Request: fold
Amino acid sequence: MTEAYGEDCLSCTSVFEWHELFSEGRESMKGDDRPGRPRTAVTDDNIEKVRDVIRKEGRLGVRAIAEEVSLDREIVRRILREELKMRKVCAKMVPKLLSDEQKERRKKLCLELLQRIENEPDLLTLIITCDETWVFTYDPETKRQSIQWKSTPSSRPKKHA
Reply:
């Protein structure tokens, strides 16, 4: 058999074991059920349990979710990432209201820019635009506190100032 099939051939030991099993009346090559824990805990039931916990409280960490559903942390992490396609995201700061001082400053900068454009007609060709970021010194909720689980296609949560 080794000459005919090469490395793809069963070993002599395996052939003898199979021969013995089939001689004893075995009719299938499927392995016997083995006692103990299932090979994986990523089941539909466990996925649904994790999904329910996330729906109730999206800000829980992996450890807290694992305790809630009585699963190992790595199993919970795998369910969140691979099965539910979720990731942790932080809330993005979106200014809701500007103070009078901020409005005045913005108006002053815009007027200065308009004046420069009148004096230097080629100025706009030198400007590179990008997203505007507002930074506030007081944040009632820290970045760490705002972290929550979101599915991949959903948008980032927003905090209003």
